[in-house]
Amino acid sequence: MSATSAHAEKILSVLNDGLAPARSAVAASWRRSLTLYGLDPEDHRPPDTLSEAKLKSAREEMGGLIHAAQATLDRLYAAVGSSGCCVLLTNRDGAPVERRGHSADDEVFHRWGLWVGADWSEAREGTNGIGTCLAEGRPLTIHRDQHFHSRNIGMSCTVAPIFDHQGRLAAALDVSSCRTDLTEAMLPLITSAVIDAARAIEAQHFRHTFSHARIVLAPECERTGTALLAVDRDDLIIGATRAARVALGVTDACIAAQRPASDVLEAGQMHFSETRGATASEDLYEAERGAVRRALARSEGNVTAAARALGVSRATLHRKMNRLGLHSDGRA
Q1: Which of 286, 278, 274, 279 has the alpha carbon at shortest distance from 264?
Q2: Residue 67 and residue 175 share a domain
Q3: For residue 243, which of 216, 278, 266, 213 has the smallest C-alpha distance?
Q4: Which of 21, 260, 268, 283 has the fewest C-beta atoms lying within 10 Å of its C-beta?
Q5: Cα Rg for the chain, rounded, in angstroms?
Q6: CATH code of residue 94
Q7: Once rounded to an integer, what is the mean pLDDT over residues 15-42?
Q8: How many CA within 13 A on the CB side of residue 31?
C-alpha cells in the first residue's frame, strides 16, 4: 500500500471511531473535511489559485493590515527562515497575500502551493494549518500526517489568527516547512514566535487605525495578548483590540455608547491580581485628574478658559470635575 493510500485508510479508521472527533481537534477537522466539505484525502490536485483580479482585490481590502505587518513579517522570517521555513500572511478566507521565503526554496514551496494567491481554506484543502486555524479561530500546528490530503503530509504548518481593530477575525499568520529535518521539538519555539508576531501585527494595525487617539494599555491576561483601548480627548472609548474585549468585556455596544475608559478598567480590574501595584484605571484617573487641575490652575479657576485649553466643552469639563471630585480652583 502506498503512503498516500495508507494515510487515507488512517483517516477513515479514525473516523470510524465515533468518539474520535470529540477527543481530537484534528479528528474533528478530518470529519468536517470528509462529511461537511465532501473532500477526498487522495485528491492530488494542487490548491486552487485566485485570479490576478481577485488577489488584487484581496490585497486592497487588507491594505492597512498588510502595511502594519511588514516589519513584523521581516523579523519573523529572519528568525525562522534559516530553518527552511517560509512565512505567509493570509486573508480571512485562507489565501496568502504576503510571503517571505528564500529564493532557493521558491520552486519547492510553489509546487506545494505555499504561495501567494493559493486557496488554503479548510473547505478546499481539508485539515491544514491555515484553513483549520481560521475555522477554529485559534493558534495551532498541523504537522505532516495530521493534514487531510495525502499530498500535504510532508508539510508542517504553524499558524495563529489575527484579529482586526474591531476584534474580528481578519487574517492568519503562517510559518510552513516542507523539510524532513524539522523535528517536533522545534515546533514549540516556532509556535511561540508565530503567536508573538500575530499579536504584534494586531497591535501595530490597531495603533495605525487609531493614530488620532490616545492608546491605553489595559491589564491583560497572558493568553489574550496585548489588550489596548483607543480613547478620545475626553477619555471615552472609541476602539478596543480583541484582547481588551475579552479581558474587559468591551463590546461594540459599549464602544458605540462611548463609555469612559476609567469605568471599564475599574470594572475589569476585578479579574486581575492586586499585587501589580497601581492599576491601569488608577493611572488613567490620576493622569486625567492632574491634567484638569493644571488647566484650572493656569486659568486661575476660570472653567471656560480651562475647557478651551483642554479642547473640551465647558459642560464636559464640569462633568469631569464632578467625577474627579474637583472644585473650580482645582482643590479636592
Answers
A1: 279
A2: yes
A3: 216
A4: 283
A5: 25
A6: 3.30.450.40
A7: 88
A8: 15
* Same structural domain, 203 and 214: no
Same domain (yes/no): 271, 310: no
Identify the domain boundary among 241, 259, 277: 277
Q: What is the mean pLDDT of residues 181-192?
A: 87
Mean pLDDT score, 92-121: 96
User: 139 near 169, Cβ under 8 Å?
Assistant: no
Whole-number Å distance between alpha carbons of 68 and 234: 27
C-alpha grid cell, residue 84: 527552511
Phi then psi for residue 331, to 5 deg, are: -80, 155
The C-alpha atoms of residue 276 and residue 252 are separated, in whole angstroms, by 29
Q: How many CB atoms lie within 10 A of CB 249?
A: 13
Q: Report residue 195 CA to chain centroid gap.
A: 8
The model's pTM is 0.81
Number of domains into which the chain is organized: 3
The Cα–Cα gap between 240 and 249 comes to: 10
Give the pLDDT confidence of 191-212 residue by residue, as tens digits. Answer: 999 999 999 999 999 999 999 9
Where does the pLDDT of residue 103 fall: very low under 50, low under 70, confident under 90, or very high at 90 and above? very high
Cβ contacts of 24 within 8 Å, gap of 6 or more? 14
- Looking at the fold, whether 49 and 157 belong to one and the same domain comes out as yes
Share the mean pLDDT of the chain. 88
pLDDT digits (tens, 9 = 90+) for 214-240: 998 876 554 556 899 999 988 899 999
Taken in order 4, 10, 16, 21, the sign of the CA dihedral is negative
For residues 67-82, give the mean pLDDT: 96
Judgement on whether residues 190 and 305 belong to the same structural domain of the protein: no
Cα dihedral 157, 163, 164, 170 sign: positive
- Specify the residue for cell string 487609531: 210
